[in-house]
Write a structure and sequence with these properties.
By secondary structure, the chain is mainly alpha-helical. It is about 70% helix and about 0% strand. The protein has one domain. The protein has nine helices and no strands. The radius of gyration is 16 Å and the shape is globular.
Length: about 200
């Protein structure tokens, strides 16, 4: 198969991002849609754009930046506060899905060796059913694996895209995934504070 060079580079970027997703979301094979929940295959592109300018730009991006910073600072109290604020900011259905999938990733998998913050978060989630949103777990695991905030947030967006598409029975080919990810940054480019991290 003859693939244009620019597509080869985009596919390589997707592969790298997906490796980060696998590290940060070990339960990805069992996950359903989280905060990106398309209405159907035929509305995927429209729903994706709406999610990008809505949930991602208005809630997830800023929350993720805060969560990653708190994880980097090993600030457990601030992390729990940001996790609760994220749950309050998300629409109810998205908040519930975020908790279900976040807690699955947090409680269902052994944390990396020496990841004390993840262990403390596991204890908090075991004691409080309202703790453990997916973006929180993703950010804390990204920090444990030394993944910078910009790349980790992009990997989370990729996970949302793929999981949302899968939820409506659509397996995205690489070129379509690359196009959707390109749209993610055309619609909502990285803010200065995220690009500086």
């Amino acid at each position: 198969m003859n693939v244009p060079r620019e597509d080869e580079a985009r596919f390589a970027d997707l592969t790298d991002l997906w490796r980060m997703t696998e590290l940060c979301l070990p339960s990805h094979e069992a996950c359903g849609a989280v905060t990106f929940c398309p209405r159907g295959q035929e509305t995927l592109d429209e729903d994706w754009r709406a999610w990008l300018v809505g949930t991602r730009a208005q809630v997830l991006r800023g929350a993720f930046l805060d969560l990653h910073r708190h994880a980097s600072e090993q600030s457990f109290a601030a992390l729990l506060g940001a996790d609760a604020a994220l749950g309050a900011a998300l629409p109810e259905a998205a908040a519930q899905a975020s908790l279900v999938e976040g807690r699955r990733a947090l409680l269902g998998f052994t944390p990396p060796r020496g990841a004390k913050l993840i262990e403390r978060l596991r204890e908090a989630a075991a004691a409080n059913e309202a703790a453990g949103h997916l973006a929180t777990i993703f950010a804390v695991r990204a920090q444990a694996f030394h993944i910078p905030a910009v790349q980790a947030e992009t990997a989370l967006v990729l996970a949302e895209c793929i999981l949302g598409a899968n939820s409506v029975g659509l397996t995205l080919p690489a070129l379509r995934t690359a196009d959707l990810m390109t749209a993610a940054f055309a619609v909502a480019p990285a803010p200065a504070q995220l690009a500086a991290v």
